[in-house]
Structures are given as C-alpha cells and as structure tokens.
Amino acid sequence: MADTQTIQINRMPSATWSWLKMNSASLSLDYLSPAENLIPAARGTEGVSYAENGAEEQKKLPVLAGGAGESAASLFASAVPVSIVAKKGTAAEKPVVLSYALSAGQNGLAAQVIRAEENSSLTVIILCSSEKTDGGFNALKTQIVAEPYAKVHVIKVQLLGEKFVQIDDTESRCAENAHIEVTHVVLGGAKTYVGVGNDLAEYKASFKSRLAYYCRNEQELDMNYVVLHHGKKTECRMDVGGTLTDSSKKTYRGTIDFNKGCAGSKGVEQEETLLLSEKTTNNSIPIILCDEEDVSGEHGASIGRLSDEILFYMKNRGIGKQAAENLIARAKVQSTASYINDEEVLSKTELFMDSIFGEL
C-alpha cells in the first residue's frame, strides 16, 4: 500500500484571512516508489566548474531565502545536487543547459547548487520534460548565490506530461551589487507548485523574476514569490503573466518585504492574467511588508478577458475566436520564452506550444 503524506507548501510570510484558504497550498503525495536522485544531461559547461556530486559545494552555502517552505525542503533530504560555479572574474560565454527527461510513474528528485564568484556572470537553463501523456512526481530545487558584482540568470522550462506533479523551489541570495534573475516558462503538468525566494542581503543588490504560463483543462498552478530587502538601495521586480482556460486554477502570492535598514530600496510586482473561460479560478495575493520608512513599493494586476473590439478586429482579418485566443495566449508565453538563449531548448518549447495551440 502506498504511503500518503500531506504537506503545506508555498506559505506566505504574513498570513491573510484564513477563510480565504490562500495562506499556503496543501499537497497530498502518494509515494508509489522510492525517490530517485536525477542526474541531468549537461552541456555548455566549458568555462565553469561543474560536478555531478555537489554535496561539498552545498555545505558552503550561506542561509538562503526560499519560497516553497520547510515542508518542501524535507522532500530533498536524499537529493544530491549538481554544482555549477563561475570562478572569480569570468563570464561564461554559453549557457549551461541541464536537461531532466522523466518517464511515466517516476518519482524524481533534481537539485542544483549555482554560485557565481565575485565579478563573474553565468546563465543556467533547466529543462524538465517527459512524454505528453506521462504522469509522476518531480521535486526540483535550485540554490543560487551571487557574490559581489556577480550576475546569474536561471531559466526554468517545464514541459512535463499532463499527469505530472512538480514542486519547483528556488532559494537565492545576492551580495553587494550582485544581480540574480529567475525566468520560468510553465506549460505542462497536472499540478505545479513554484516557490521563489531571494535575500537582497547587501548594498545595491538586485533581483528580477518573470513567469509565463498557460493553464488548460484542470491544470493547477500555485506560486509563492518572496523577496527580502535587507541591504540599502536594493531593488526587485517580479512579473507574472499568463492565460487560464477550461477549468484550470492559478494562485499567485507575491511578497516584497522591506526590512529595517534597507533605506532607499525599491520593489515592484506586476501580474497580467487572461481569462478564457467562466470555469477558471484565479487567485492573486500581492503583499508589501514594510519596516523601513525610506522605501518605494508598488504592485498592480491586470485581469480580464479578450474585448469585443479585439475579437472584431481579428474576425475582420479572417481569424476566428478560438484562433484569436490561441494567438494571444501563445504570444504571452513567447514573450518570456524569448529569454531562452539556447536553440535546442527553445525548439522543444516551440514544439510543445505547437501541440497546445496548433502550428502558426
């Protein structure tokens, strides 16, 4: 008999009304098989230090801010991370690409430690994929450290089968004048839980994130973004945009936390959601916490349907309602997918979109 465990993930730092049932996500997991530690197919590792067993590198990490929470962290107790380190003063010319190809019924753990030493730069692309009709469980954890004046861009592309459940947790920390960027493209899976955290720990550290999605049928996407401002004159921006159709569901939690001592800091979060069905469920919880006077924080949301004017414009050009919806929904994803600076991963993403929207 399969063991069942229920965990609370993506918990907000500051709770809202309990009757809304949005303070965290509850996930019941049936473990049909032991968790398997996944080693990715890796390429583009020239110019960086890469190791399939990065356990020693992981031990060197400082305390990192995460989004999924402690319950999710317990899932990775047996995970052995790969490590990627950009040495001091080096700029990796090509992105490091990590590909995880999962199979039906697989319970896979995938972990990475990414560190950019002082004045270095690095891009890492992480692809999780499977056959379209496959199902299973994938726990993905990425830990990122940017040392002074370093730049790191992590791009995550989720093209899993329609029955997969994925927990994707990103923990990160920026030192003085360092910059971390996290980009997500989420298209597959039955349920996807994305947690992203960053600690802007030192002077003029900065963080930027973007996530694009298309949820259809009964897909669920649950997100929790948390940025902690500690250093002076730190900056963050978080953008989330996508489309809900059929009976799909999306929850977005975004927290900008201005802590005492982060004077001169700025934070912005923006969300855009296109609704294409009356049966969708859309939850949005943007939060700004403030314990410092000299800061600037703002958030906004644009949630709605295609206007009659847009549909009329499309119709006059021979584009029907369904084709117009597909065209605009795909464009929302493509604007974020354009950051994928690897032809092979981008091609796989385009083919996956073809299977959803049809070829253009």
**Which structural class should the secondary elements be placed in?**
mainly beta
Mean pLDDT: 93
Kindly state the number of beta strands.
21
The major β-sheet equals: 10 strands, mixed
Cα(first) to Cα(last) distance is 47 Å
Question: Measured on Cα atoms, how large is the radius of gyration?
Answer: 20 Å
Q: How many separate helices?
A: 5
Percentage of residues assigned to helices:
10-25%
Shape, please?
globular
- The proportion of strand residues reads over 45%
Uncertain residue ranges = none
Order of helices and strands: EEEEEHHEEEEEEEEEEEEEEEEHHH
Keywords:
360 residues; mainly beta; ten-stranded mixed beta sheet; nine-stranded mixed beta sheet; 5 helices; 14% helix; globular
